[in-house]
Amino acid sequence: MNRWTLGLIALLLSALPASAGWWSTHWPSLPVCGDSEVLYRISSVASWAEHSTWHRGWIIHGISNAGETAYDPSRSHIHRRYCRATAWLSDGRRTELVYVIEAGQGFAGIGWNVEYCLPAYDPWRVYDAWCRAIEPY
Q1: 46, 60 contact by CB (below 8 A)
Q2: What is the DSSP letter of 74?
Q3: 42-78, pLDDT tens digit by residue?
Q4: What is the value of pTM for the model shown?
Q5: In 3-state terms, what secondary structure has residue 7?
Q6: How far apart are CA 37 and CA 137, in angstroms?
Q7: Which end of the chain has fewer beta carbons closer than 10 Å to its terminal beta carbon, N or C?
Q8: What DSSP designation does 87 have?
Q9: 137 Cα distance to chain centroid
C-alpha cells in the first residue's frame, strides 16, 4: 500500500507543468560561484579526466578569484549561474576557468551539477571553441 501511495505522489509531482511556478518556489537555491563544494567538484572531475584521459601531466591545484558573470539569463526552466575564476595548475601555470552551475541537473534531476571548461586547454572543443557553449551569451 505504501509503495502505491509513494508512486502516486511521485507521478503527480512529475506531472506538474514547469510553468506552474512550483519549481521556482520549491527549487533548492544554487550555490554561489566560490562555494567550496562547487570548486571541489571541478577539481575532482578535472583530476579524474587528467588521469583517465588527457595525460598532460598537470591537474588543477587551486581555484581563486571565483565570480559570477550571469544568473539565469534565459527563460529556461533550468536555473543557471555562470561563473569565471582563475585555475592554478600543478605545474605552476594559471589559466582562465569558465563554469556553469545548473539546478535540477544532478543525479535523476535532483540537486545541482557543475560543468567546467578551461578555454586554453580544450583541444576537443567539448564546449565549442573557447568554451562558448557554457557562456551566458
Answers
A1: yes
A2: S
A3: 999 999 999 999 899 999 999 999 999 998 766 777 8
A4: 0.76
A5: helix
A6: 26
A7: N
A8: E
A9: 16
